[in-house]
């Protein structure tokens, strides 16, 4: 794969780079939505976790992070309530404006969901993924309702790679899925790297702890 394609893929992953089994949305006085991340069964080693926090970058340099939500870790799960809205300092331009129905919309992504021990020390992170870890779900906050659609591709001989972004964001919290597909057509292998707010029906997402 050419370096430009690798860089593009890395960018897609970074932009959409986290997470849920159920999500409740309710109206707020600020016109947005609150969201509740409910993990009822966390896979892998979660011994020693007492609290769970969600963090977002607090500036565009991504050198600092703030905690936006916190809850207890109980019965091998957690119930993390996200704020109905985020301050402007957390919002950034995540997509090419040419791909967006509203170029003025800005977003923030949950950078990590962290497990803490009783001393408040980080002992690992939670992720909502498939069994292989190649597909994952990430929470995004948007300050406006908008859609984003984009497509780029690379091909060489009987090999193709497509990078597809198709998301419909509502104002408030949104769950974004990152996954890939592989098909063979007339001896041609076609890979698609997809970022979408539409959950893929053939992928089972489960909570993991690393």
Note the main attributes of this structure.
210 residues; mainly beta; 15-stranded mixed sheet; 15 strands; globular
Note the topology:
Elements: H1 3-16, E1 25-27, E2 33-39, E3 42-43, E4 51-57, E5 65-74, E6 77-82, E7 107-109, E8 112-116, E9 122-129, E10 136-142, E11 146-156, E12 159-169, E13 172-185, E14 188-196, E15 206-209
Parallel strand pairs: 3-15, 12-14
Antiparallel strand pairs: 1-2, 2-6, 4-5, 4-8, 5-6, 7-10, 8-9, 9-10, 9-15, 10-13, 11-12, 13-14
Structure in words:
- The chain is mostly beta strands.
- The protein has one domain.
- Helix content is 7%, strand content 51%.
- The protein has 1 helix and 15 strands; from the N terminus they run H-E-E-E-E-E-E-E-E-E-E-E-E-E-E-E.
- The protein has one helix at 3-16, and strands spanning 25-27, 33-39, 42-43, 51-57, 65-74, 77-82, 107-109, 112-116, 122-129, 136-142, 146-156, 159-169, 172-185, 188-196, 206-209.
- It has a 15-stranded mixed beta sheet that branches.
- It is globular, with a radius of gyration of 18 Å.
- The two termini are 29 Å apart.
- Residues 1-33 have low confidence and may be disordered.
């Amino acid at each position: 794969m050419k370096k430009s394609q690798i860089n593009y893929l890395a960018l897609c992953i970074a932009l959409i780079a986290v997470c849920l089994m159920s999500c409740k949305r309710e109206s707020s006085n600020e016109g947005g939505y609150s969201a509740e991340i409910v993990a009822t069964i966390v896979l892998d080693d979660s011994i020693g976790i007492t609290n769970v926090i969600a963090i977002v970058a607090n500036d565009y340099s991504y050198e600092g992070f703030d905690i936006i939500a916190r809850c207890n870790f109980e019965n091998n799960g957690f119930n993390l309530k996200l704020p109905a809205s985020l301050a402007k300092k957390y919002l950034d331009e995540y997509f090419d404006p040419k791909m967006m129905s509203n170029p003025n919309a800005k977003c923030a992504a949950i950078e990590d969901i962290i497990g803490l021990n009783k001393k408040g020390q980080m002992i690992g992170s939670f992720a909502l993924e498939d069994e292989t870890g190649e597909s994952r779900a990430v929470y995004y906050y948007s300050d406006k309702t908008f859609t984003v659609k984009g497509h780029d591709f690379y091909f060489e001989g009987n090999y193709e790679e497509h990078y597809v972004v198709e998301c419909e964001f509502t104002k408030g919290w949104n769950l974004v899925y990152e996954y890939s597909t592989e098909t063979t057509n007339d001896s041609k292998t076609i890979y698609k790297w997809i970022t979408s707010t539409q959950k893929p029906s053939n992928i089972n997402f489960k909570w993991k702890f690393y």
